[in-house]
């Protein structure tokens, strides 16, 4: 029951008009001034009343309005957060992204001044949590993991689920579980109030569709109140391009647009939205080259009003001397409009209905006269922002911009809602987003660069209106926006593999997954398939209950496949290697890529064209020049030296290279010498430490140890490691199509003459042939032996020009009979033309050479 204070006001910890707080915080004057400008700050009383009176509250407000930074502070001051306080238990805030969890924790600590030490963050590789912690920022994954150990979340008095509009897989699961935990704690608090307290849930979201979780009866029996914070959003003028650049040209178009803005428009930061690291690196480089020093720009004599208009109308922008060639004439457009103008029409968002405001804006913009010190005559302060960037570099976007320079941040969609960069006035939006898309039908996982949603594009535009009226330049036409953009982005639960969360839910005792209150339920087949995989991995029994093995697997913060590899990895002295392999696979490709052919991040079509090996004469991975980076040549040398055998696995390649870097001390210098990304190496190391510690706790007999300088695996160990990889990827075996009765078409016969890349493989889930990715080390062995391996397991399937099986490991098809036993039917090979999945029996039928009985297993056979 809400307490009433003496004056009859609801006791939210804020009493009367001169606010007094349970936890008085002293802040610097500057911080206090900044806070007072935030829309959320003005609503403190209303927000705290709602939280006091309701166990679940939805808070929706424009990005940058102060939700993430302010609400935890309100709660702290109102006496939440401390075991000795009125509301014992920490304040937990979940974020979908590590970047945001860390940077927001920093910011809140800074704002809290002397109470800063009570703020901590916990993300996968990094935690600052101590006994003093009252406000804990964490990723959703961290809280989900805590839930498996303590479903009641007894350490917390309130959980803030931030960025709920993003609909990440984890947010959805978290909201589903938390809706139940809140009810459970309420019940317990009623029954034994001296032992239990209620848990409060605050769901925070940008101003996007909130009904999926707010008005969702399966989630909350009575709909939680929605507080909408009106942000002071300045109008943003949206400029559509008349024509949409041809696919692949948007990168150049971005450079051109930024150059134009910088040279012609009044001061104000520029924020560019692109899709990935490779492009961002490229654009940053281009911009730095163009604007590195003092450049000659048009004199300020030109009237600003005309400059503004000209900026968007004039095609013939000439950027410096070198620039014009690159950025010049040869833009391809997708329409045949012959108009000179590149701009189509403009729309004003923000206070759009208010015609008077629009006029005012136009006036404002026109009246901004240029001065001789306009930043256009200075240089551009270009900063990249993407998830893979090292943390301290990410924080640079908040630092003061050097005097006389204009800030230009080139970002992925991290800057869309979770991070608000100060001082942005111009947004350049390519309109694209790169998402890891996963087809739940074919299980094909791919990075897909596609149009973002209309809602996301509006969010991006809104970034320009934080500090004053702004402009958003869209590199696509309004027709494309209207016809090809979906209204909202798809929730992740419909696009991602879900076996990990299914296992976690089962471990929490939520057995009936089909009835789980998903904000958006995944398709039933996807759930069924996840359960099936877990059964094959031995994590679930036939009845769908979690097994002891499954419980153990859930302890490790990695995908179930990888957890399985760790557990079977305790054989033949391989554990340290398996831990390293799992860490590397979880973190992802550690290799440095050439900009713009960055397939690791899937830079889209252009990358595919570069990588497509079929057109490269008589084939062989060797013949694709971009492929032959020094990193790979180094690997060959290392592999030959260390292993003394033919390369058999891309995972072993990763192991060799990561091992070599660590052997050399793991420094940044060692990384660059081996052409790997220091951030990846650091993360792999941290994950190894974490996995090793978990192994020591949960499998004490395995003797897990963290060794910096590991000897390379012996030949036997290499084979065992390959078998362990197979144990984790039992369902991702690709068998040579031609031996299994696949008839190559003439076309393919022709292709085969040209290169080994054309050899088709069959997998269990799809009738479409797959091909081993040209980057794979498998080809080196194949070139020597003259034939491709009969069977490989692959860690990833990527669809681009064709289905590429990536990160391949050669396996012996005989191993399948033991390691993949639940999936195998044993019989005459001729009657099983290709591995087949029988859905009624949940079995994969795969060809296993019948003359090899269980007696002739290779010496080191893994027990599964
Ligand atoms: P919301 O969660 O509603 O999107 P935030 O609480 O994240 O809003 O941000 C509120 C304000 O705090 C923004 O104007 C943002 O620019 C500012 N801010 C956030 N982090 C920092 C930082 N590290 N340094 C300076 N300002 C910051
Ligand atoms: Mg926020």
Automatic annotation (TrEMBL):
EC main group: hydrolase
Region of interest (Disordered), ranges: 305-328, 607-631
Single annotated GO MF: RNA binding
GO cellular component: nucleolus
EC number in record: 3.6.4.13
Domain Helicase ATP-binding, chain residue ranges per copy: 48-226
Biological processes, Gene Ontology terms: maturation of SSU-rRNA from tricistronic rRNA transcript (SSU-rRNA, 5.8S rRNA, LSU-rRNA)
Helicase C-terminal domain sequence ranges: 333-509
Biased composition range(s): Acidic residues: 311-328
Alphabetical UniProt keywords: ATP-binding, Helicase, Hydrolase, Nucleotide-binding
Reactions listed under catalytic activity: ATP + H2O = ADP + phosphate + H(+)
Superkingdom of the organism of origin: Eukaryota
Family classification: Belongs to the DEAD box helicase family. DEAH subfamily.
Identification of the protein by name: RNA helicase
Naturally occurring in which organism (per UniProt): Coemansia reversa (strain ATCC 12441 / NRRL 1564)
Shown residues in whole-protein numbering: 289 to 1152 of 1168
């Amino acid at each position: 029951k809400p307490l009433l204070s003496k004056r009859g006001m609801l006791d939210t910890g804020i009493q009367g008009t001169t606010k007094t707080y349970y936890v008085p915080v002293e802040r610097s004057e500057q911080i206090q001034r900044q806070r007072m400008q935030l829309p959320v700050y003005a609503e403190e009383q209303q927000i705290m009343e709602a939280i006091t009176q309701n166990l679940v509250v939805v808070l929706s407000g424009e990005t940058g309005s102060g939700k993430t930074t302010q609400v935890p502070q309100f709660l702290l001051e109102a006496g939440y957060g401390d075991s000795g306080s009125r509301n014992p238990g920490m304040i937990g805030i979940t974020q979908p992204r590590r970047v945001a969890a860390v940077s927001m924790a920093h910011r809140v600590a800074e704002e809290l001044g002397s109470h800063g030490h009570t703020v901590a963050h916990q993300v996968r590789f990094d935690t600052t949590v101590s006994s003093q912690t009252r406000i804990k920022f964490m990723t959703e994954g961290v809280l989900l993991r805590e839930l498996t150990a303590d479903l009641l979340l007894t350490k917390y008095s309130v959980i803030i689920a931030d960025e709920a509009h993003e609909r990440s897989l984890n947010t959805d699961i978290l909201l589903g579980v938390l809706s139940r935990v809140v009810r459970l704690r309420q019940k317990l608090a009623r029954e034994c109030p001296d032992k239990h307290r209620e848990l409060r849930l605050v769901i925070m979201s940008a101003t996007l569709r909130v009904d999926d979780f707010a008005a969702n009866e399966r989630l909350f029996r009575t709909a939680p109140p929605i507080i909408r914070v009106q942000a002071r959003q300045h109008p943003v003028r949206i400029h559509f391009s008349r024509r949409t650049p041809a696919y692949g040209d948007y990168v150049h178009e971005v450079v051109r647009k930024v150059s134009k803005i910088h040279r012609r428009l009044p001061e104000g930061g520029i924020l560019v939205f692109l899709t990935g690291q490779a492009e961002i690196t490229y654009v940053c480089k281009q911009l730095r080259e163009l604007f590195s020093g003092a450049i000659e720009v048009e004199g300020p004599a030109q009237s600003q009003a005309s400059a503004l208009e000209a900026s968007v109308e004039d095609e013939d922008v000439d950027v410096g001397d070198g620039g014009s060639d690159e950025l010049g004439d040869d833009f391809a457009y997708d329409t045949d409009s012959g108009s000179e103008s590149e701009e189509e029409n403009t729309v004003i968002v923000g206070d759009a209905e208010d015609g008077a405001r629009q006029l005012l804006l136009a006036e404002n913009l026109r009246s901004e006269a240029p001065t001789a010190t306009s930043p256009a005559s200075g240089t551009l302060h270009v900063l990249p922002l993407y998830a893979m960037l090292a943390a301290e570099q990410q924080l640079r976007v908040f630092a003061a911009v050097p005097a006389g320079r204009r800030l230009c941040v080139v970002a992925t969609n991290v800057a869309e809602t979770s991070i608000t960069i100060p001082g942005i006035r111009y947004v350049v939006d390519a309109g694209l987003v790169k998402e890891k898309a996963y087809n739940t039908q074919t299980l094909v996982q791919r990075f897909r660069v596609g149009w973002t949603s209309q809602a996301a594009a509006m969010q991006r535009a809104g970034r320009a209106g934080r500090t004053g009226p702004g402009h958003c330049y869209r590199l696509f036409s309004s027709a494309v926006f209207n016809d090809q953009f979906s209204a909202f982005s798809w929730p992740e639960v419909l696009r991602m593999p879900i076996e990990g969360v299914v296992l976690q839910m089962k471990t929490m005792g939520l057995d009936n997954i089909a009835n789980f209150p998903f904000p958006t339920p995944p398709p039933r087949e996807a759930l069924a398939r996840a359960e099936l995989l877990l059964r094959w991995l031995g994590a679930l029994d036939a009845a769908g209950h979690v097994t002891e093995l499954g419980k153990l697997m859930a302890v490790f913060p990695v995908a179930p496949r990888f957890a399985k590899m760790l557990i079977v990895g305790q054989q033949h002295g391989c554990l340290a290697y398996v831990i390293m392999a799992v860490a590397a696979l979880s973190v992802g490709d550690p290799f440095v890529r050439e900009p713009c052919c960055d397939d690791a991040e899937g830079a889209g079509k252009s990358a595919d064209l570069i990588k497509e090996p079929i057109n490269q004469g008589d084939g062989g991975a060797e013949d694709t020049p971009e492929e032959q980076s020094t990193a790979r040549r180094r690997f060959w040398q290392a592999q030959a030296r260390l292993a003394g055998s033919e390369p058999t696995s891309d995972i072993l390649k990763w192991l060799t290279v990561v091992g070599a870097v660590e052997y050399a001390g793991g420094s940044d210098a060692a990384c660059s010498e081996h052409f790997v990304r220091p951030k990846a190496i650091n993360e792999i190391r941290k994950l190894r430490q974490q996995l090793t510690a978990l192994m020591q706790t949960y499998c004490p007999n395995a003797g897990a140890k963290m060794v910096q300088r590991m000897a390379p695996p012996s030949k036997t160990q290499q084979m065992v490691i390959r078998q362990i990889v197979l144990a984790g990827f039992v369902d991702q075996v690709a068998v040579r199509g031609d031996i299994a009765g696949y008839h190559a078409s003439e076309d393919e016969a022709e292709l085969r003459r040209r290169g080994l890349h054309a050899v088709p493989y069959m997998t269990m889930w799809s009738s479409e042939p797959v091909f081993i990715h040209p980057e794979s080390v498998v080809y080196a062995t194949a070139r020597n032996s003259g034939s491709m391996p009969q069977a490989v397991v692959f860690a990833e399937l990527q669809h681009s020009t064709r289905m590429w099986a990536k990160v391949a490991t050669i396996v012996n098809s005989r191993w399948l009979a033991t390691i993949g036993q639940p999936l195998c039917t044993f019989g005459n090979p001729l009657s099983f033309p290709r591995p087949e999945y029988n859905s009624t029996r949940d079995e994969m039928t795969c060809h296993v050479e019948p003359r090899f009985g269980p007696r002739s297993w290779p010496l080191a056979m893994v027990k599964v």
